[in-house]
Design a protein that fits this description.
Protein-Tyrosine Phosphatase, Chain A, alpha/beta, 2 domains, 8-stranded mixed β-sheet, 41% helix, UDP-N-acetylmuramoyl-L-alanine:D-glutamate ligase
Protein backbone atom coordinates (compact mmCIF):
# COMPACT_ATOMS: atom_id res chain seq x y z
CA UNK A 1 0.00 0.00 0.00
CA UNK A 2 1.52 3.27 -1.16
CA UNK A 3 -1.22 5.78 -0.37
CA UNK A 4 -3.35 6.74 2.62
CA UNK A 5 -6.49 5.93 0.62
CA UNK A 6 -5.27 2.40 -0.07
CA UNK A 7 -4.43 1.87 3.61
CA UNK A 8 -7.85 3.12 4.74
CA UNK A 9 -9.63 0.99 2.14
CA UNK A 10 -7.86 -2.12 3.46
CA UNK A 11 -8.52 -1.25 7.12
CA UNK A 12 -12.22 -0.59 6.51
CA UNK A 13 -12.49 -3.78 4.46
CA UNK A 14 -12.13 -5.62 7.78
CA UNK A 15 -15.55 -4.26 8.87
CA UNK A 16 -17.24 -7.17 7.12
CA UNK A 17 -15.84 -9.51 9.79
CA UNK A 18 -17.96 -7.77 12.44
CA UNK A 19 -17.12 -8.23 16.13
CA UNK A 20 -14.85 -10.99 17.41
CA UNK A 21 -15.38 -11.90 21.07
CA UNK A 22 -12.06 -13.44 21.99
CA UNK A 23 -8.35 -12.73 22.22
CA UNK A 24 -6.90 -15.55 20.10
CA UNK A 25 -6.26 -13.38 17.04
CA UNK A 26 -4.78 -10.58 19.13
CA UNK A 27 -2.48 -12.94 21.01
CA UNK A 28 -1.26 -14.43 17.73
CA UNK A 29 -0.57 -11.01 16.17
CA UNK A 30 1.12 -9.68 19.31
CA UNK A 31 3.45 -12.70 19.44
CA UNK A 32 4.42 -12.26 15.78
CA UNK A 33 5.10 -8.54 16.43
CA UNK A 34 7.38 -9.31 19.37
CA UNK A 35 4.74 -8.62 22.04
CA UNK A 36 4.78 -4.81 21.88
CA UNK A 37 1.99 -4.64 24.47
CA UNK A 38 4.36 -6.04 27.12
CA UNK A 39 6.67 -3.06 26.73
CA UNK A 40 4.00 -0.42 27.34
CA UNK A 41 2.99 1.33 30.54
CA UNK A 42 -0.78 1.38 30.17
CA UNK A 43 -3.80 2.89 31.90
CA UNK A 44 -6.78 0.80 30.72
CA UNK A 45 -10.13 2.63 30.63
CA UNK A 46 -13.46 0.79 30.27
CA UNK A 47 -17.09 1.57 31.04
CA UNK A 48 -20.33 2.42 29.24
CA UNK A 49 -20.04 6.21 29.00
CA UNK A 50 -17.30 8.73 29.68
CA UNK A 51 -14.36 6.59 28.53
CA UNK A 52 -13.12 9.08 25.96
CA UNK A 53 -13.42 12.06 28.29
CA UNK A 54 -11.64 10.19 31.08
CA UNK A 55 -8.85 9.24 28.67
CA UNK A 56 -8.56 12.92 27.76
CA UNK A 57 -8.27 14.04 31.38
CA UNK A 58 -5.55 11.47 32.02
CA UNK A 59 -3.68 12.50 28.88
CA UNK A 60 -3.95 16.24 29.45
CA UNK A 61 -2.69 16.08 33.06
CA UNK A 62 0.19 13.75 32.18
CA UNK A 63 1.17 15.98 29.26
CA UNK A 64 1.31 18.97 31.62
CA UNK A 65 3.59 16.90 33.86
CA UNK A 66 6.01 16.50 30.95
CA UNK A 67 5.15 13.00 29.78
CA UNK A 68 4.68 11.88 26.20
CA UNK A 69 1.33 10.13 26.17
CA UNK A 70 -0.19 7.86 23.55
CA UNK A 71 -3.96 7.44 23.39
CA UNK A 72 -6.11 4.88 21.63
CA UNK A 73 -9.79 5.85 21.39
CA UNK A 74 -12.90 5.20 19.32
CA UNK A 75 -14.77 6.21 17.34
CA UNK A 76 -13.22 9.24 15.67
CA UNK A 77 -15.11 12.51 15.16
CA UNK A 78 -13.39 14.31 12.30
CA UNK A 79 -10.47 12.14 11.14
CA UNK A 80 -9.70 8.41 11.44
CA UNK A 81 -6.13 9.20 12.56
CA UNK A 82 -7.52 10.63 15.84
CA UNK A 83 -7.89 7.08 17.11
CA UNK A 84 -4.11 6.76 17.52
CA UNK A 85 -2.68 9.99 18.94
CA UNK A 86 0.37 11.27 20.82
CA UNK A 87 -0.16 14.18 23.21
CA UNK A 88 -3.54 14.74 21.56
CA UNK A 89 -2.08 14.97 18.04
CA UNK A 90 -3.32 12.32 15.58
CA UNK A 91 -0.73 10.14 13.83
CA UNK A 92 0.23 11.17 10.31
CA UNK A 93 -1.13 9.65 7.11
CA UNK A 94 2.37 8.26 6.53
CA UNK A 95 2.25 6.47 9.88
CA UNK A 96 -1.10 4.91 8.96
CA UNK A 97 0.38 3.64 5.69
CA UNK A 98 3.42 2.20 7.48
CA UNK A 99 1.31 0.52 10.16
CA UNK A 100 -1.10 -0.97 7.64
CA UNK A 101 1.82 -2.40 5.66
CA UNK A 102 3.21 -3.93 8.86
CA UNK A 103 -0.06 -5.55 9.96
CA UNK A 104 -1.50 -6.66 6.59
CA UNK A 105 0.98 -9.56 5.96
CA UNK A 106 0.31 -10.85 9.48
CA UNK A 107 -3.44 -10.73 8.89
CA UNK A 108 -3.07 -12.69 5.66
CA UNK A 109 -0.91 -15.28 7.42
CA UNK A 110 -3.29 -15.45 10.40
CA UNK A 111 -6.24 -16.19 8.12
CA UNK A 112 -4.50 -19.39 7.02
CA UNK A 113 -4.15 -20.70 10.59
CA UNK A 114 -7.81 -21.46 11.31
CA UNK A 115 -8.03 -18.85 14.07
CA UNK A 116 -10.28 -16.68 11.92
CA UNK A 117 -10.12 -13.29 10.23
CA UNK A 118 -9.16 -10.30 12.40
CA UNK A 119 -11.80 -7.58 12.58
CA UNK A 120 -11.25 -3.90 11.83
CA UNK A 121 -11.01 -3.11 15.54
CA UNK A 122 -8.45 -5.87 16.13
CA UNK A 123 -6.35 -4.56 13.25
CA UNK A 124 -6.47 -0.97 14.56
CA UNK A 125 -5.66 -2.10 18.12
CA UNK A 126 -2.63 -4.02 16.84
CA UNK A 127 -1.56 -0.95 14.86
CA UNK A 128 -1.82 1.26 17.96
CA UNK A 129 0.11 -1.06 20.26
CA UNK A 130 2.87 -1.54 17.69
CA UNK A 131 3.05 2.21 17.05
CA UNK A 132 3.42 3.14 20.72
CA UNK A 133 6.03 0.45 21.37
CA UNK A 134 8.05 0.54 18.13
CA UNK A 135 7.42 3.41 15.72
CA UNK A 136 6.92 6.16 18.28
CA UNK A 137 7.74 4.96 21.82
CA UNK A 138 5.88 6.93 24.49
CA UNK A 139 6.09 7.22 28.28
CA UNK A 140 2.53 6.05 28.93
CA UNK A 141 -0.45 4.81 26.94
CA UNK A 142 -4.10 5.48 27.81
CA UNK A 143 -6.06 2.67 26.18
CA UNK A 144 -9.83 2.88 25.72
CA UNK A 145 -11.84 -0.35 25.65
CA UNK A 146 -13.84 -0.78 22.46
CA UNK A 147 -16.76 -2.99 23.51
CA UNK A 148 -17.37 -4.68 26.85
CA UNK A 149 -13.99 -5.61 28.26
CA UNK A 150 -13.43 -9.28 28.95
CA UNK A 151 -13.08 -10.23 25.27
CA UNK A 152 -12.20 -6.81 23.89
CA UNK A 153 -9.02 -6.71 21.80
CA UNK A 154 -7.47 -4.11 24.14
CA UNK A 155 -7.63 -6.65 26.97
CA UNK A 156 -4.32 -8.07 25.77
CA UNK A 157 -2.46 -5.58 28.01
CA UNK A 158 -1.39 -5.82 31.65
CA UNK A 159 -1.83 -2.22 32.83
CA UNK A 160 -0.55 -0.09 35.68
CA UNK A 161 -4.10 0.94 36.44
CA UNK A 162 -7.61 -0.17 35.50
CA UNK A 163 -10.48 2.35 35.30
CA UNK A 164 -14.17 1.51 34.87
CA UNK A 165 -16.12 4.75 34.47
CA UNK A 166 -19.71 3.57 34.82
CA UNK A 167 -22.07 0.83 33.68
CA UNK A 168 -25.29 1.24 31.73
CA UNK A 169 -27.61 -0.63 29.40
CA UNK A 170 -25.76 -0.53 26.10
CA UNK A 171 -24.79 -3.23 23.57
CA UNK A 172 -27.19 -5.54 25.42
CA UNK A 173 -27.42 -7.97 22.49
CA UNK A 174 -23.73 -8.72 22.89
CA UNK A 175 -23.00 -8.06 26.58
CA UNK A 176 -26.26 -9.25 28.11
CA UNK A 177 -29.63 -7.82 29.06
CA UNK A 178 -28.99 -7.06 32.75
CA UNK A 179 -26.72 -4.68 34.65
CA UNK A 180 -25.07 -7.68 36.33
CA UNK A 181 -24.20 -9.34 33.00
CA UNK A 182 -22.83 -6.11 31.54
CA UNK A 183 -20.84 -5.48 34.74
CA UNK A 184 -19.37 -8.97 34.46
CA UNK A 185 -18.09 -8.23 30.95
CA UNK A 186 -16.73 -4.81 31.96
CA UNK A 187 -15.03 -6.37 35.02
CA UNK A 188 -13.11 -8.64 32.68
CA UNK A 189 -10.41 -5.97 32.28
CA UNK A 190 -9.50 -6.26 35.98
CA UNK A 191 -6.05 -7.88 36.27
CA UNK A 192 -4.29 -9.64 39.13
CA UNK A 193 -2.89 -7.14 41.60
CA UNK A 194 -3.67 -4.11 39.40
CA UNK A 195 -5.59 -1.34 41.22
CA UNK A 196 -9.11 -0.54 39.97
CA UNK A 197 -10.85 2.84 40.12
CA UNK A 198 -14.53 3.18 39.34
CA UNK A 199 -17.46 5.60 39.40
CA UNK A 200 -20.03 2.79 39.03
CA UNK A 201 -23.07 3.54 41.20
CA UNK A 202 -25.55 0.66 40.91
CA UNK A 203 -25.33 -1.75 43.87
CA UNK A 204 -25.78 -4.81 41.64
CA UNK A 205 -22.96 -3.66 39.34
CA UNK A 206 -20.48 -2.62 42.03
CA UNK A 207 -20.93 -5.99 43.75
CA UNK A 208 -19.80 -7.71 40.54
CA UNK A 209 -16.73 -5.46 40.29
CA UNK A 210 -15.81 -5.97 43.94
CA UNK A 211 -16.12 -9.75 43.61
CA UNK A 212 -13.92 -9.79 40.48
CA UNK A 213 -11.34 -7.51 42.13
CA UNK A 214 -11.26 -9.74 45.22
CA UNK A 215 -10.70 -12.86 43.09
CA UNK A 216 -7.82 -11.12 41.30
CA UNK A 217 -6.30 -9.60 44.44
CA UNK A 218 -6.80 -6.15 42.92
CA UNK A 219 -7.38 -3.19 45.28
CA UNK A 220 -10.53 -1.29 44.29
CA UNK A 221 -11.24 2.42 44.87
CA UNK A 222 -14.77 3.76 44.52
CA UNK A 223 -16.04 7.24 43.74
CA UNK A 224 -18.11 8.49 46.67
CA UNK A 225 -16.19 6.29 49.12
CA UNK A 226 -12.45 6.58 48.51
CA UNK A 227 -12.61 9.88 46.63
CA UNK A 228 -15.42 12.27 45.77
CA UNK A 229 -16.66 15.32 43.90
CA UNK A 230 -17.78 18.10 46.24
CA UNK A 231 -18.85 21.76 45.94
CA UNK A 232 -19.92 21.41 42.34
CA UNK A 233 -20.59 24.68 40.56
CA UNK A 234 -21.44 25.16 36.88
CA UNK A 235 -19.52 28.00 35.24
CA UNK A 236 -20.35 29.83 31.99
CA UNK A 237 -17.57 28.08 30.08
CA UNK A 238 -17.30 24.80 31.99
CA UNK A 239 -17.53 23.25 35.43
CA UNK A 240 -15.91 23.79 38.83
CA UNK A 241 -15.59 21.27 41.67
CA UNK A 242 -13.52 20.23 44.65
CA UNK A 243 -11.77 16.86 44.61
CA UNK A 244 -11.50 15.10 47.96
CA UNK A 245 -9.28 12.03 48.26
CA UNK A 246 -7.82 10.11 51.20
CA UNK A 247 -4.52 12.01 51.01
CA UNK A 248 -5.36 15.22 49.16
CA UNK A 249 -8.04 17.87 48.75
CA UNK A 250 -7.99 20.05 45.64
CA UNK A 251 -10.28 23.08 45.79
CA UNK A 252 -11.98 24.67 42.78
CA UNK A 253 -10.71 22.52 39.95
CA UNK A 254 -11.98 23.89 36.64
CA UNK A 255 -13.02 22.03 33.49
CA UNK A 256 -13.83 23.33 30.03
CA UNK A 257 -15.93 20.23 29.27
CA UNK A 258 -19.62 20.73 30.06
CA UNK A 259 -21.81 18.65 32.37
CA UNK A 260 -21.71 17.43 35.95
CA UNK A 261 -20.82 13.94 34.67
CA UNK A 262 -17.51 15.36 33.46
CA UNK A 263 -16.52 16.18 37.04
CA UNK A 264 -16.89 12.48 37.87
CA UNK A 265 -14.76 11.52 34.86
CA UNK A 266 -12.17 14.09 35.89
CA UNK A 267 -12.14 12.81 39.48
CA UNK A 268 -11.36 9.30 38.22
CA UNK A 269 -8.34 10.63 36.35
CA UNK A 270 -7.16 12.68 39.33
CA UNK A 271 -7.58 9.77 41.77
CA UNK A 272 -5.79 7.39 39.40
CA UNK A 273 -2.83 9.68 38.84
CA UNK A 274 -2.51 10.46 42.55
CA UNK A 275 -2.36 6.69 43.16
CA UNK A 276 0.43 6.32 40.60
CA UNK A 277 2.25 9.24 42.20
CA UNK A 278 2.02 7.69 45.66
CA UNK A 279 3.33 4.43 44.18
CA UNK A 280 6.32 6.36 42.76
CA UNK A 281 5.33 5.44 39.20
CA UNK A 282 4.99 9.06 38.03
CA UNK A 283 6.00 12.54 39.11
CA UNK A 284 3.08 14.93 39.51
CA UNK A 285 2.41 18.37 40.97
CA UNK A 286 -0.88 20.04 41.88
CA UNK A 287 -0.47 22.61 39.11
CA UNK A 288 -0.19 19.84 36.53
CA UNK A 289 -3.61 18.60 37.63
CA UNK A 290 -5.21 22.06 37.59
CA UNK A 291 -3.82 23.09 34.22
CA UNK A 292 -4.37 19.68 32.65
CA UNK A 293 -8.04 19.58 33.63
CA UNK A 294 -8.64 23.14 32.45
CA UNK A 295 -7.04 22.47 29.05
CA UNK A 296 -8.64 19.05 28.43
CA UNK A 297 -10.69 19.00 25.24
CA UNK A 298 -12.66 16.11 23.78
CA UNK A 299 -14.62 16.64 20.53
CA UNK A 300 -18.25 15.66 20.22
CA UNK A 301 -18.98 15.48 23.94
CA UNK A 302 -21.16 18.45 25.00
CA UNK A 303 -18.98 20.44 22.63
CA UNK A 304 -19.89 24.06 21.99
CA UNK A 305 -19.18 24.65 18.30
CA UNK A 306 -20.52 28.20 18.34
CA UNK A 307 -21.62 30.68 20.99
CA UNK A 308 -23.59 33.03 18.72
CA UNK A 309 -25.70 31.32 17.58
CA UNK A 310 -25.31 28.69 20.30
CA UNK A 311 -24.65 25.26 18.80
CA UNK A 312 -23.84 22.20 20.93
CA UNK A 313 -23.07 18.66 19.73
CA UNK A 314 -22.99 15.60 21.98
CA UNK A 315 -22.69 11.89 21.26
CA UNK A 316 -25.38 10.75 23.68
CA UNK A 317 -25.93 7.27 22.24
CA UNK A 318 -27.52 5.34 25.14
CA UNK A 319 -29.99 6.05 27.98
CA UNK A 320 -27.33 7.10 30.52
CA UNK A 321 -25.65 9.38 27.99
CA UNK A 322 -28.96 10.98 27.03
CA UNK A 323 -29.84 11.53 30.69
CA UNK A 324 -26.57 13.43 31.18
CA UNK A 325 -27.18 15.40 27.97
CA UNK A 326 -30.73 16.30 29.03
CA UNK A 327 -29.63 17.41 32.52
CA UNK A 328 -26.87 19.61 31.10
CA UNK A 329 -29.12 21.27 28.51
CA UNK A 330 -31.83 21.97 31.09
CA UNK A 331 -29.28 23.45 33.48
CA UNK A 332 -27.44 25.62 30.96
CA UNK A 333 -30.18 26.73 28.56
CA UNK A 334 -32.86 28.05 30.89
CA UNK A 335 -34.93 30.81 29.29
CA UNK A 336 -33.66 30.03 25.79
CA UNK A 337 -35.41 28.44 22.84
CA UNK A 338 -33.80 25.03 22.33
CA UNK A 339 -34.01 23.04 19.11
CA UNK A 340 -32.95 19.39 19.33
CA UNK A 341 -31.85 17.26 16.37
CA UNK A 342 -31.41 13.53 17.06
CA UNK A 343 -30.31 10.46 15.10
CA UNK A 344 -29.36 7.01 16.36
CA UNK A 345 -28.62 3.42 15.41
CA UNK A 346 -31.50 0.96 15.25
CA UNK A 347 -29.89 -1.49 17.70
CA UNK A 348 -29.83 1.00 20.59
CA UNK A 349 -32.36 0.99 23.44
CA UNK A 350 -34.60 3.49 21.68
CA UNK A 351 -37.58 2.78 23.91
CA UNK A 352 -35.67 3.99 26.98
CA UNK A 353 -33.76 6.78 25.23
CA UNK A 354 -36.24 8.72 23.14
CA UNK A 355 -38.79 9.68 25.84
CA UNK A 356 -35.92 11.49 27.61
CA UNK A 357 -36.05 14.12 24.87
CA UNK A 358 -39.63 15.11 25.64
CA UNK A 359 -39.86 18.71 26.84
CA UNK A 360 -36.18 19.29 26.25
CA UNK A 361 -36.65 21.59 23.27
CA UNK A 362 -39.34 23.77 21.75
CA UNK A 363 -38.68 21.92 18.50
CA UNK A 364 -37.52 18.31 18.34
CA UNK A 365 -36.43 16.80 15.04
CA UNK A 366 -35.63 13.17 14.37
CA UNK A 367 -33.45 12.49 11.36
CA UNK A 368 -31.39 9.73 9.77
CA UNK A 369 -27.89 9.36 8.32
CA UNK A 370 -25.92 7.14 5.99
CA UNK A 371 -24.54 4.40 8.21
CA UNK A 372 -25.18 0.65 8.64
CA UNK A 373 -27.91 0.02 11.23
CA UNK A 374 -29.00 3.69 11.32
CA UNK A 375 -32.64 4.06 12.36
CA UNK A 376 -35.02 5.94 10.05
CA UNK A 377 -36.38 9.33 11.07
CA UNK A 378 -39.93 7.96 10.94
CA UNK A 379 -39.02 5.04 13.19
CA UNK A 380 -37.42 7.35 15.78
CA UNK A 381 -40.46 9.63 15.83
CA UNK A 382 -42.81 6.66 16.20
CA UNK A 383 -40.88 5.09 19.09
CA UNK A 384 -40.49 8.43 20.90
CA UNK A 385 -44.22 9.06 21.18
CA UNK A 386 -43.41 12.78 21.49
CA UNK A 387 -46.31 14.89 20.25
CA UNK A 388 -45.20 17.64 17.90
CA UNK A 389 -41.85 16.04 17.11
CA UNK A 390 -40.92 16.11 13.43
CA UNK A 391 -39.20 13.57 11.19
CA UNK A 392 -36.80 14.90 8.55
CA UNK A 393 -34.86 12.49 6.34
CA UNK A 394 -32.28 15.01 5.03
CA UNK A 395 -30.25 16.24 8.00
CA UNK A 396 -28.14 18.60 5.88
CA UNK A 397 -31.16 20.53 4.63
CA UNK A 398 -32.63 20.47 8.14
CA UNK A 399 -29.53 21.99 9.75
CA UNK A 400 -29.25 24.58 6.98
CA UNK A 401 -32.86 25.64 7.59
CA UNK A 402 -32.46 25.79 11.38
CA UNK A 403 -29.17 27.72 11.35
CA UNK A 404 -30.48 30.21 8.78
CA UNK A 405 -33.36 31.26 11.06
CA UNK A 406 -31.67 31.13 14.50
CA UNK A 407 -31.37 34.30 16.56
CA UNK A 408 -29.03 35.15 19.44
CA UNK A 409 -31.24 33.69 22.18
CA UNK A 410 -31.66 30.26 20.59
CA UNK A 411 -29.73 27.01 21.05
CA UNK A 412 -29.28 24.19 18.56
CA UNK A 413 -28.43 20.90 20.27
CA UNK A 414 -27.48 17.99 18.01
CA UNK A 415 -27.18 14.60 19.67
CA UNK A 416 -27.39 10.84 19.30
CA UNK A 417 -24.93 8.45 17.68
CA UNK A 418 -21.26 9.45 17.71
CA UNK A 419 -21.15 8.27 14.09
CA UNK A 420 -23.86 10.86 13.36
CA UNK A 421 -21.92 13.55 15.21
CA UNK A 422 -18.80 12.76 13.17
CA UNK A 423 -20.76 13.50 9.98
CA UNK A 424 -22.62 16.51 11.34
CA UNK A 425 -19.84 18.50 12.98
CA UNK A 426 -17.84 19.51 9.86
CA UNK A 427 -21.07 20.40 8.01
CA UNK A 428 -22.24 22.65 10.86
CA UNK A 429 -18.86 24.39 10.83
CA UNK A 430 -19.19 25.04 7.10
CA UNK A 431 -22.74 26.35 7.45
CA UNK A 432 -21.74 28.68 10.31
CA UNK A 433 -18.78 29.95 8.31
CA UNK A 434 -21.04 30.76 5.34
CA UNK A 435 -23.56 32.44 7.64
CA UNK A 436 -20.85 34.64 9.15
CA UNK A 437 -19.49 35.50 5.70
CA UNK A 438 -22.96 36.51 4.55
CA UNK A 439 -23.48 38.60 7.70
CA UNK A 440 -20.18 40.47 7.16
CA UNK A 441 -20.85 41.31 3.52
Amino acid sequence: MNTYGEAMKWIHSRLKFGINLGLDCMEWMMERLGNPESRLKVIHVGGTNGKGSTVTFFRSILHEAGYEVGTFTSPYIEQFNERISVNGVPVSDGDIISLANTIKPLVEELELTGLGSPTEFEVITAMALYYFAELHPVDLVILEVGLGGRFDSTNIVHPLLTVITNIGMDHTRILGGTIEKIAYEKAGIIKAGVPVLTAVKQDQAIRVLIEEAKEKGAPIFQSGIDFSVEQYEPRPAGECFTFIGKAMKLDQLELSLLGYHQTENASLAVAGLLYLKEANMISLKEQHIRTGLAKAYWPGRMETISNVPAVIVDGAHNPEGLQAFSATIKQRCKGKKVTVVFAALEDKDLGSMLPLLEGLGEDIYFTEFDFPRAASAARLKEVSGIKGAKAETDWRLLLKKILRSMDTNEVLAVTGSLYFISQVKPVIKQLLHKKNEHRNQ
